[in-house]
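Before a colleague's protein record goes any further, I have to sign it off. My question to you is simply how this chain folds and whether the tokens agree. I do not need a full report, just your reasoning and any doubts. This is what I was given:
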Amino acid sequence: MNVFMVLVLVAAVVVVGLLALAVTGRTGFAAPLSEPVRALPPVLLPPAPEAGDVDALRFSPGLRGYRMDQVDEVLETLSGALAERDAEIARLRRLAGRIPGKSADDVV
């Protein structure tokens, strides 16, 4: 191997190393990954969310993204819990309407 080939090989190793440092943010010249610019409106639920509100909820993907399976599972669980709660509230209100002298608002 001649000297030129060794220099090219060393230069290639240095360039690959610097690229690896830059990608991982360990160069010390810049912050690794700063907070994203908030250009999109926040994803919000209404004050009293219903199952349909959760079903319609969509998140914006980020640079690093998110595990959609985890988010979908959480949203599915939340949607089911809200649907069960709404059904229980409706059942209790119907039951409270049958109690003489009590209105649905008086029953907690």
Notes: Residues 68-97 form the longest helix (30 residues).
